[in-house]
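Appendix C: a fully annotated inverse folding record. The material below is reproduced so that readers can follow the format used throughout the book. The structure is listed first as tokens, followed by the designed sequence.
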């Protein structure tokens, strides 16, 4: 049997970590290859790691033809859906995969609309094909909030490769990485090189820099009565206490994020 490996298809999904690969190899050696490798013709679609391990150790394996594929986009969508359903996939990976699916669905919809416009120029536009994916739809598919999905998009667009690698390896959270991604590329790289502490510090500085400047206090009118001056003083005190409360809330949010990250590292 001839099995063809497409390197771009192999790299379409993030590779296993060293520990995950070792665990898979140990399982295959102990239990054999229980799940069939999925093929499209002679092209390997699912099971690249299993195939490599089986070839290395001479472990027998079965294959399964998926005849539903009609294009490479079908293959990509199947791979995305297959991995979105796995529990071991991180929030960041699920977000990236769901955004890839959105791009494919959007491209297909645009192609259908273009074809309809060319063949039926006088008729009303039809939505046929795959339905459009809203941000909420993508977030649900990735099992993350819309806010987290927005952070993942920002990381993809502006983060240096080193910062993306730090997110994938769990060194920094999505929330913190999105903040650090606002910095120039060289500062991002320097923060990653500095380790977890430096990354957290950089994220905290970015968040604090986004806080609105404190407004200057207005002086009471020159001819103000003592009662008006006291009222003015109390109003300034209320503003000051409100600002202090808001700052404390921000600090609590930052500490909560830092605590969550610290627990994940344990």
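Designed amino acids, in order:
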């Amino acid at each position: 049997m001839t099995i063809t490996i497409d390197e771009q298809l192999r790299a379409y999904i993030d590779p296993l970590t060293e520990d995950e690969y070792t665990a898979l190899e140990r399982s295959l050696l102990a239990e054999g290859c229980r799940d069939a490798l999925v093929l499209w013709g002679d092209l390997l679609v699912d099971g690249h790691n299993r195939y490599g391990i089986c070839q290395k150790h001479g472990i027998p394996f079965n294959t399964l033809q998926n005849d539903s594929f009609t294009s490479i986009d079908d293959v990509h969508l199947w791979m995305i859906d297959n991995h979105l359903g796995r529990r071991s996939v991180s929030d960041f990976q699920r977000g990236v995969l769901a955004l890839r699916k959105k791009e494919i669905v959007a491209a297909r919809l645009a192609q259908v609309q273009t074809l309809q416009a060319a063949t039926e120029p006088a008729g009303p536009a039809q939505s046929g094909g795959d339905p459009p994916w809203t941000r909420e739809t993508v977030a649900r598919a990735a099992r993350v909030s819309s806010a987290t999905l927005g952070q993942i998009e920002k990381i993809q667009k502006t983060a240096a490769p080193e910062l993306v690698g730090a997110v994938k390896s769990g060194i920094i959270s999505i929330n913190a990485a999105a903040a650090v991604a606002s910095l120039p590329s060289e500062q991002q790289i320097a923060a990653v090189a500095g380790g977890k502490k430096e990354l957290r510090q950089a994220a905290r500085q970015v968040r604090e820099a986004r806080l609105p400047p404190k407004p200057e206090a207005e002086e009471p009118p020159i001819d103000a009565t003592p009662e008006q001056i006291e009222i003015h003083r109390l109003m300034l005190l209320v503003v000051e206490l409100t600002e202090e409360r808001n700052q404390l809330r921000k600090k609590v949010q930052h500490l909560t994020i830092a605590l969550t990250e610290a627990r994940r590292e344990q």
